[in-house]
Amino acid sequence: MNVSQLAQVTSDYEQEVAQFAADVLTGLSSESKYLSAKYFYDDTGSELFRAISQHQDYYLTRTEYEILDRHSRQLPALLGEDEIDIIELGAGDGHKSELILNSFLAAGVKVNFYAIDISDKAMDMLAETIKEKTNLTVRGLVGDYFDGLRFVKERSSKRQLVLFLGSNIGNFDHVESKAFLRRLWSSLNADDYLLIGFDLKKDINELVSAYSDSSNYTRDLNLNLLARINRELGGDFDLSAFQHYAVYNPVLGAMESYLLALREQKVYIEALQQAFHFDAFEPLHLEYSFKFLPTEIDSLCKQTGYKLIDNFSDSGERFIDSLWQVSLRKP
Ligand SMILES: C[S@@+](CC[C@H](N)C(=O)[O-])C[C@H]1O[C@@H](n2cnc3c(N)ncnc32)[C@H](O)[C@@H]1O
Question: How many whole angstroms separate alpha carbon 208 and alpha carbon 249?
């Protein structure tokens, strides 16, 4: 690994498993059952996401790659810094981040790159992609977004550019995304920057096939969450008794991913010493992927305390990477 230092910034493994168990208990005890998508990304989940991101049906990754390939060279001039701390939240394998880092390096800017991801496996993949070189230091932080940000804040004195790519923001509902952006605002300094990826509202067939790819990687990613509960919490989910179902909700403006119980069943989870009953065809909600209009991006920016500097889009106008700057006004 050529990531200069790798730090585990979240609590220890036992605390993580206890938190996982508590979140599973809350979700499966709810009247409408749900599990948090943040638990998708164990080693198998991160490998599956990489396969999804390279799949023909999943337009998001290659579209955002096109945007960064076309526009990231504008960033150094827009920011006007000689040295910058670039902090990526949920970096994944880092292959899009590399375009941004290279743009700053090519413009003669010294870059301190901090990659934060909850998944060890994602950090291993990132270390394969991004190597330290002249003017570039790389620090991998395994942990939750804000644990990673706290770690960086204690060490960073430079202008910061936070990357939140891949439409990760779409996994929050409208209330959560505002809360997230305001919390991020309060952890940054005045005039710091945020480059944030938004998937745009578009043809519903294109959306649905992206979240139900023809190789079934998305189905496998969702089922892997049940397998993870079996492995880490001693569950007895029968994976063959659940069906993946992805649907666009036009009222919310979001893709929704579910696993549907194919028959009435009970699932016992050892770590919780509890059984959970599923009716036949009962849905288990796993993920939202909210889609945006450009006007919704503008108002989210204003409402959460940032100034919109520029929107960068692809040739098909399917996705926007929006550059925001922290404004002094309290959100
Ligand atoms: C959908 S993938 C996107 C990866 C990459 N940003 C991209 O655009 O291809 C989401 C990534 O965020 C990470 N992640 C999800 N929730 C997280 C959290 N709460 N804290 C830190 N990382 C998280 C996952 O491990 C995964 O690598």
Answer: 11
